[in-house]
Amino acid sequence: MPEEPEPLIGPYIDHTLLHPDATIGDIDRLCNEAVEHQFFAVCVNGCWIPHVWNRLADTDVSIATVVGFPLGANDTDSKRYETEVAIDNGAHEIDMVMNLGRFIDGDYKYIVREIRDVIEAADNRRVKFIIETGYFTKKQITNACQLAVEAEAHFVKTSTGFGPGGATVEHVRLMRESVGQRAGVKASGGIRDKVTAREMIDAGATRIGTSAGVTIATG
User: What is the pTM of this model?
Assistant: First the structure.
């Protein structure tokens, strides 16, 4: 029997460019690559959403953006407003950063309320909850995932890429076990080759956030 072909990895990838010095040429290149390699989405900072929307309007590539990025310490109202503006400008998905300090303090009601506020502002678009797993123990990661499920976030996500660590297979597997089938899992941070991306998918990731999408897609 011939071997089955390896599943396409492009549909798992959020092709990401969040560097503060990104130029319009860099963003155009990102969009072109996303279309060429059939990536699920591009992920950009909010100021680029209108331009990206014009570039990708006639394609199947979704537009994701970040809220409360990269620290998560913004006031909840500012995260909500960021979300509203992003949706008005054409974003399809919102990746929001958890308020790390409030979580460490055990103010779980605040965390749940903040997620729900962003979900409401997102107006039926997908919301991904960034935990920044590099700061936390396994128990804390599990707790954060459970709060995300309680608040009905659509995804839990490992990292911003700006924190103390990126995605690990161990953390992705733990997050999948914590949310079951009630949410997606996005592995993000430090994923730069196809082997690592496949390991994340095998561990339970349903989306891969990376700036190395082309390298991953082409092997």
Answer: 0.96
